[in-house]
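**Discrete fold encoding**
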Amino acid sequence: MIIVLTGIDGSGKSTAAHALVNSVAAHGGKAVLLNNHAGRRTMSVLSAKTGIRLPKRLAEALETTFRVWNVLVSHLRASRFEGLVVMDRHLYCQLALRTTKGLPRGRFLPWLLKALPAPDAVVHFDIHPGEAHRRIMARGTDDETLEDLIAFRDAYQQLPEYQDFVKVDATLPPAELARQLEQLIVKGQQLPAPPAGA
């Protein structure tokens, strides 16, 4: 079973993903977390250190290349893994980012999405951009502006695939989010139900 997690920066995807994988393991299941990053944070840090800002289209091309490579590797690993595969981010994220930069969807990413095995669920972490920005400022590792996050939120909602996403309240504590995600898996009859009160 493959579950993809999407959402704007600061929505808690990575934290909840780790909590979910740990919870599944604690209940006797097999789970693996695969990250499909695009290298945005690394490029942002390098840009800040060097003072060199890449042209929009070049930066997006590099991000897309990294993202596509990671997604392909993740799907290859998923095909060899018997259990739950949790993918933190996917090509949906890159399509949303393209929209925030005023770039068209293009043909390659939508084609690749259809060519790859469809995830059993795409779970979108729904959060107000203001709260996400507060979290980002608190951790001090990113430089996303509130305007960037609003644009990213809007771009996700404009994706034609968005209507099929499973939305969850990203303001919930990570443990509760993980429990909601695990219940989604249980409904798919992929894992035994967690013990009562767990």
Notes: The mean pLDDT is 86. The two ends are 22 Å apart (CA to CA). DSSP finds eight helices and five strands in the chain.
